[in-house]
Amino acid sequence: MPEQVTLWLAGLRPAIDAALEHRLAVGDDDPGRLREAMRYAVLGEGKRLRPALVLAAAEAVAGAAVGAAMPAAAAIEMLHAYTLIHDDLPAMDDDTMRRGRPTVHVAFGEAIAILAGDGLLTAAFGALAELGAQAGDAGAGLAARAGAHALLAGQARDLAVVA
After folding, report:
1. CA-based, 20 to 30 A from 33: which of 46, 58, 85, 104?
2. Which has more pLDDT, 43 or 66?
């Protein structure tokens, strides 16, 4: 990766991580370590490329400040983490390591991994709702790309090839 891009990502990462930390706080009551598993999936190592691209696109298209576009950026990162959790499950790719550490289902168990993925998907739409009037268009777009006609269809195709 070019050094300029690496520096740009490093400059945005603290704000992105803070936004994710805020949305994924673990309180005193965390049944089955669900919220801890969600944080584990999202806040591990990674470049934060997807949310950074959301922020760059919002600035380029609408002149939006980082803060104004951060709910959408957080939503994309949470959605991405959800897809990785589910993709790693034994019923899918059965991966045991991701980014140099145990996958969520290995670290927390399969049932909590499924719930953590579902929780992140729900949290992604919750973050988009923070956009106010723009939330409808953003939510519809995310639902279309993450749903049964796009992202999930791709996973189903992968499973059909393996079966």
Report:
1. 46
2. 43
